[in-house]
Structures are given as C-alpha cells and as structure tokens.
C-alpha cells in the first residue's frame, strides 16, 4: 500500500523534547507504516509562528528524521505580517485555535484576528486548519457542573459540549465564504455538525474535514472513571456519535483520518488522581493509526481502497503533496508500507516506539500488522527494527 501520510502530529521539538521529539516520533511513524508526517506548530518552544521559529524547528530536526516531515505554521494574534515569510520559507499551511490551546506560546485567535489573517492566506493560496471549538458553550457548561466528580469521564464530556464544535464550524464556514480562504477542520468529533459540513461542501466552499482513530474506535460509555489516558479535546463522544462519524466518512463529508498524536510525560496525565478536568488532553497513537482504523473499518464493510484514501491519498492532497505522496505510481516517491491485514496483535508497552508508552490502546487487540516500511526505496522499518535516518524536510514548493 502507499506509505501513510499523517498531517496531524505534535512532535514538540524544540523545547519540549521530554514530551516527544523528532527521533522518537519518526521511529514510531516508520513502525506504523507512516512515511510522511506533518508537525504541528504548537507545543514546541518557540512555536512556529515566526520565520525565526520555523528556522529553529528545521535546525532541531536535522539528522533525526526516519521519515519525511513537513511543518505547519501558526496563526496567532498579531502575526499576520509573518504569514508570507513562513509560506515562502516552506510551511505547508497554517493552524489556529478558536479556544485557548493549553500552552502560552500559542494563544487563540478571535474573529477580528481571522478577518485580518484569512484574506492574506487566501492571497497566498495557503490553507488554514482550525481547532474548531469556541469558548462560550464550554464556559457555560463548566459553570453548571457544580460538585460533580472530576474523576468521572461524564463530567469531562459534559464540559466540552458538541455545541462548542458546532458553533465553531459555522463561524469558520461563514469566514471562508467571506474571505475565500481554504479551511480545514481538524480532529472533528461532533456528528451534529456533519449536515452543516455537507451543505457547505455542496455549495462549493473550499473546505475539508478530518477525524481521528480515537473518535472512531472508543465510545464515551466505555471509558472508566479516572482513566485520564482517554482525555483529548474535543472529547471522545457517545457510541451513536461514533457511528455517525463513520457514516460521514462513508458519504465523503469527512475526508480523511489522522492520528492527532499529542503526547506528554505520563505524570501530566495525573493517572494516580484520575483527574479528567486537570490532566493534559492528548492521545498517543502515531504508530497505531493503520491497525486501529482497519480494525474498525473492516467490521463495517469498508475496503482497502477506503483505507488508502483516508490514510494516504486524501491527506497528501490536503497539503499539496499528492503528486509525490499517497500513491504508488510512476513519478511518485517510492514510499510503501507492506502489512498483513489478517494478522492480529496486542498493544503492549514493549512494542511502542513513542517516547512515552501511556496510551488508551494498551491491552487492545488490533487487526493489521505492519511488516516493512519503505521510504525513497530504502527500508526504514522491518519487523521491529528501524533503520535510518533517511527522512527529509518537505517544503511546500
């Protein structure tokens, strides 16, 4: 199959390499059949919101890449003047948050910030990807929680209502209409917004949508209280919501599936306290995206052709690398994963190549074993062994 393309990975280097790092992240990618990943602009210090920050990121990655890596830039209040510099330097596009991101170096934007930045991105032809939750519904729900236990998953779920996503998606659709800027909704979890997204696509707005393995595999009803390794934002929602997301993929409203690999040191998950409200939100799954999605997709009658679209060709197209990545054909990179769709394995810490082993998938039995990963004709992973570094930095030109 074509080597996987994962356009949503938090590598966290430079500045937070105790969370992850280019060497361990790209080892995990190779072990998971991923030959191209795109690094998010936040959780590293500095954030990739200036040309200087971009240059520091490139320097930090030097000599450490086991797979090819591209870089997202960031839109934050006041950096509109940096956007063209970052685009000319080679970022694949730009990310923003409509709600506080969780780190001080990457503040969220307001509508007025976006009305300054989005026309500039439209002029450049650069896409904007959005963490689509707005603060209002979340703040209202948090105020109404009262004395409910922070160990209960339901408490956390109630604190991040679907309405926060729905309102954010509506706002971004309107801004895309007004500015002509191409937008992409990241890690979408609210099935309520699927009809709105479908309608926007029907009318030809430049819009794409991704979801993640954790929203397609887990269900809120099954998450134990105190199991903070399941915390992510937006949250894992109810079983009926999960099935509607699968239908969104079936009809093509949701375009593809990325990991949103967002690791942290295990102590930040507050596992001993089981405190969902204060634990870091993020799920580690970069190495496991292929078997997780195949396990669930095959149960629902989807084919390997669907898998290639969701994990390879569609994400490559979103970042403009579809000529080289996400397919096996003359003229494309020799990036290939060889895997056994019938073999099963159990997720244990010893097999995980991420820097930290805590993940909600521990103990899960999944279908689909990656045997070899090939990048540019070189074997970079072979049945447990990682070779390299053979990866390169990808620029948008």
What would you note in describing this structure?
By secondary structure, this protein is α/β, with parallel strands linked by helices. 33% of the residues lie in helices and 16% in strands. It contains twelve helices and 13 strands. The chain has a six-stranded parallel beta sheet with strand order 4-5-6-7-8-9. It starts with a strand and ends in an 11-residue tail after the last strand.
Descriptive key words:
397 residues; alpha/beta; six-stranded parallel beta sheet; four-stranded antiparallel beta sheet; 12 helices; 13 strands; globular
Distance between the termini: 26 Å
Taking Cα atoms only, what radius of gyration do you get, to the nearest Å?
Answer: 19 Å
Q: Mean of residue pLDDT?
A: 97
Strand content: 15-25%
The residue fraction in helices comes out at: 25-40%
Number of strands: 13
Judged by helices, strands and strand pairing, the structural class is alpha/beta
**Which segments are poorly predicted (pLDDT under 50) over 5 or more consecutive residues?**
none
Neighbour order of strands in the largest sheet: 4-5-6-7-8-9
Q: What is the H-and-E element order?
A: EHEHEEHEHEHHHEHEHHEHHEEEE
Number of helices: 12
Overall morphology: globular
Largest sheet: 6 strands, parallel
